[in-house]
Amino acid sequence: MKTRLMFVMTVLWGLTACTNVPSSPITPPTASPTSSPTSPALPRPTPLPGSDLTTLTLWVPDLLSGETAGEAHPLLLAQIEEFSRQHTNIQVQVLVKKAQGAGGLYDLLSTAFSAAPVVLPDLVILEHDDLHAAVENGFVVALPPEELTDSVFPFASDAVTFDERVYGLPFLSEVSQAVYTPRLDVAAPLSWTKVLTGGYALLFPTAPAANLADDFLVEIYQGSGGQVADAEGRPLLDRPHLEELYRFMAVMVEAGLLDPMRLATLPDSRACWETFQTEAVQSNRPLLSAVPAGVYWSSAARVGAASWAPTRDGQPFALAEVWSLALVSTDFAHEDAALQLARWLNERGQAADLSLAVAMLPPSREALALWPLSTEGVAFLEQLLPATVLSPPPTVDQPVRRALQAGLNFLLTTEGATPEQAATHALTVLRK
């Protein structure tokens, strides 16, 4: 049967791309376990008749748009075109939406669910906090447990598992790490002691957007034993670890290894990476910089060596954000077709290529194995990714980040401020 492909470009929250492609009959997977009251796992439907035509709608975040992701958007469309060559009775319409916030994927999903269900997608790519909210409100459909394979890293499995049920296929991940200028006579700056004895100047944002601490600062605190939530799930900063963190920062300032005015000009870790690449070539001074892991490992010519945000004892630790494919449709035929598309996009080859194009790590070992990594790179990621955790829910994450940053700002801008005073200031901000 001749493949049909239609691309329709519209404008919605920036760039919106629509792709219609046909597909062939599919074999239904095994039925899922008992469904939950809020988000049922539907039984698998019977195969579609060969003459039927099913039109699917896929919502994707604008990080996959042609404007912001380089080759990622056309690659996504090419993958769907290939899907059409192998199937002949499914059309796919791809709509690019704002990733998060007002008018974002979850916001539109929740609005349409009650007000205009006819415009709901069959498949959507959601960030893990938004996926959790979608599960709680019954917006997405539970998947058979076998859809989540052992190849998926633990943090990505956590992102799609709620009440022991699976609600998505982990698709892309943003993981934080560090990069440094290696020196033959100095050990890697994995611990606070190694940073100081090696004379490594830090590059991380000290004036981040909305005054919310960058992952780098949170990782230094949390990776050194600091807690961010109490037993009831409320935001928490524990004073002993908080004072240790600010004491380390104070020593770095005294040693001339942390320049507050300079770091205040760096808005995020990508800016730090750009600065690092320039200075690592032009200067002999040892540097340790924040960098998104996907950006670092997807770079054709990587400068420096991989590290993680330094922790007190040098233990690996990182924070992650996970984007997953989730089913919205409760129509039997549409659900089955959408699951087939989700599986196709998440196959190791497709997932590896798309994640590399968008400079985000694939959250599975099978896909990551197809990245062009050195033996040293594989060994590093095998250390870091099992020690990676999800960022906490926004109700915890934002207050903690705001308080951590407030304490650091107090330390760096208040003459004569002590680590103890900075910790007190951070705790005061947390309680507001």
Explain the overall architecture:
- This protein is 39% helix and 17% strand.
- By secondary structure, the chain is of the alpha/beta class.
- The protein has 2 domains: 6-173 and 322-368, D-Maltodextrin-Binding Protein, domain 2, CATH 3.40.190; 175-320 and 376-431, D-Maltodextrin-Binding Protein, domain 2 (3-Layer(aba) Sandwich).
- Strands 3, 4, 5, 8, 9, 10, 11, 12 and 13 form a 9-stranded mixed beta sheet that branches. A two-stranded antiparallel ribbon has the order 1-2. Strands 6-7 form a two-stranded antiparallel ribbon.
- β3 (54-61), α1 and β4 (90-97) form a beta-alpha-beta unit.
- α1 (72-86) runs antiparallel to α12 and α15 packs antiparallel against α16.
The 3D shape can be described as: globular
Nearest-integer average pLDDT: 87
What CATH architecture of the largest domain would you give?
A: 3-Layer(aba) Sandwich
Low-confidence spans: pLDDT under 50, at least 5 residues? Answer: 1-51
**Span between termini:** 64 Å
Number of strands: 13
What is the total number of structural domains?
2
Radius of gyration: 23 Å
